[in-house]
Amino acid sequence: MSPTIAVVAHRKKILGAGLDRLRVLLSEQDVGELIWHEVPKSRKAPKKVRKALDAGAELVFVWGGDGMVQRCADAMAGSGVPMAILPAGTANLFATNLGIPIDLEESVRIGFRGRRAELDLGLLNGEHFAVMAGAGFEAEMIAEADGKAKRKLGKLSYVKAAVRHVGGPLVPMTVKVDGATWFEGEASCLLLGNVGTIAGGIEAFDDARPDDGWLEVGLSTAKGPVQWARVMGRMAAGRSEDSPFVRITRARKVSARFGSPLTYELDGGDREATTRIKAEVAPGALTVCLP
């Protein structure tokens, strides 16, 4: 029996010849019922994903960037239904880390013919993420690189935003990993990673894997352009842990308290400022179609 296929698409995102071409490509496959949802903003996607799952979708194609994938992954976590990523965003970090090409025809083929893998997600303050979560400098940078800037400048929008926020103040914070105090002092950025390459194409976590049952934890005490330039230089060389302004470890659970409210982000989408975060790894929570 032909499978029920769902498409949940961010209609403002572009990949290849567009959504019309996607319909043609799907018509060439063995598809039973086709469930089609388009949304104007990624935050409207979870409701459509849940509706598709309730209707019996056996494979969900997600059209959009990392923010769209994150919203859909949050709704699909634990369902066992495979997600096929159609990378139509600016950075497409999750797809890039997984080897999924920025190519419509090939990503559709992977959806139907690729292998299925159960990958980890992070869970922060009750919401899943696939690539990274962060608070402080990195989150402020991402919040600054809004949708309009990313459409105009692409990845350069992150560089522009970083320059604006690089002189921000250090914030008192206490970070616990797996129940033990790991850091207590002033820092500029706390980052949790599920994969190695993060915003701006930076290799933050050299050995990260999305199927190892761990979260990567990074913290920076860098302040000002000179110290941040040194941090970025070490990251570019694949030696993040060698920086005197960086600490890196791994954990299954992470909690943090901040001395003042900090903006935090999930996969490039900023959230309201908070003084506390609580995160953990969700092993094998999302089934993804891979090359």
Describe the structure.
The protein is of the alpha+beta class and 291 residues long. It has helices at residues 19-27, 45-54, 66-76, 93-98, 104-113, 137-144, 147-153, 156-165, 224-236, and strands at residues 5-10, 34-39, 59-64, 83-87, 115-124, 127-129, 132-136, 171-177, 180-187, 189-193, 215-220, 246-251, 253-266, 269-290. It folds into two domains: 5-113, 3-Layer(aba) Sandwich (Rossmann fold), CATH 3.40.50; 127-282, Sandwich (Tumour Suppressor Smad4), CATH 2.60.200. It has nine helices and 14 strands. The strands form two sheets. Strands 5, 6, 7, 8, 9, 10, 11, 12, 13 and 14 form a ten-stranded antiparallel sheet that branches. Helix 2 packs across helix 3 (66-76) and helix 6 (137-144) crosses helix 8 (156-165). The radius of gyration is 19 Å and the shape is elongated. The model is unreliable at 149-165 (pLDDT under 50).
Task: Summarize this entry quickly.
With 291 residues, the protein is of the alpha+beta class. It has helices spanning 19-27, 45-54, 66-76, 93-98, 104-113, 137-144, 147-153, 156-165, 224-236; strands spanning 5-10, 34-39, 59-64, 83-87, 115-124, 127-129, 132-136, 171-177, 180-187, 189-193, 215-220, 246-251, 253-266, 269-290. The protein has nine helices and 14 strands.
Number of helices: 9
Oligomer: single chain
> What class do helices, strands and sheet pairing give?
alpha+beta
> What is the level-2 CATH architecture name of the largest domain?
Sandwich
Whole-angstrom Rg: 19 Å
Poorly predicted regions: 149-165
| H/E series | EHEHEHEHHEEEHHHEEEEHEEE
Q: Tell me how many strands there are.
A: 14
Sheet having the most strands: 10 strands, antiparallel
What percent of the residues sit in helical stretches (DSSP H or I)?
A: 25-40%
CATH class division of the largest domain: Mainly Beta
Strand content: 35-45%
Counted up, domains total 2
Can you tell me the CATH topology of the largest domain?
A: Tumour Suppressor Smad4
Shape: elongated
User: Averaged pLDDT, please?
Assistant: 88
How widely separated are the two ends? 24 Å
